[in-house]
Amino acid sequence: MKKDVQEMVDRGEMLPLMEEFYTIQGEGFHKGTAAYFIRVGGCDVGCHWCDVKESWNAEIHPPTLTSEIVENARKYSDTIVVTGGEPLTWDMGPLTNRLKANGLNVHIETSGAYPLTGTWDWICLSPKKMKLPTDEVYAKANELKVIVYNKDDFRFAEEQAAKVGDACILYLQPEWSKRDKVVPLIVDYVMANPKWKVSLQTHKYLNIP
Fold first, then answer.
1. Was 85 annotated as part of a binding site?
2. Is residue 176 annotated as involved in ligand binding?
3. Please, what's the largest Cα pairwise distance for the chain?
4. CATH number of the domain at 3-206, please?
5. Could you give the CA distance from residue 120 to residue 89 in angstroms, rounded to a whole number?
6. 28 annotated ligand-binding residue
7. Where are the domains of the chain?
8. Is position 83 annotated in a ligand binding site?
9. Which residues does substrate bind (predicted)?
């Protein structure tokens, strides 16, 4: 990568853009909402069940000016979801400042493993055991979404729930490949612990991106 491009990436003026698309938010609190997704490449958290492993290597995704990303986004929706990969790998300040300047609602889906940058209307925190979130993102999370792959994830979920604010909405979501086994466990758990809610990847049931 050329030095000047690398410097712009380091400042968040360019981002390794994997894809951008207009769809229906399928998960969590805003499920069913039309939203424009910006998927940024780069992630070293390394979830073995990740369904977008092609996002991990930032070097294969072209550095793209944040001004161009925003110009595309503003044409489609007033709700923008920044996801990855792990978007907080990069400085989100320039992107979110431009999105907010266009009057857009800006959401992030993050593991929280890196310092929180950017200005957000909604923070969906999905913590991972391999690389835990920062204290700041726990305090600011609007939504906690824990992926359930096995029974130990319920223990992990409670540990994480103890660290977020009282207003944070708590979700348990089955890992897609294990859904037949873990959905009954999640249902039983939520019924016994009603502070939690069930989140499903409804976009996969709808067969949309």
1. yes
2. no
3. 55
4. 3.20.20.70
5. 16
6. no
7. 3-206
8. yes
9. 24-26, 39, 83, 209
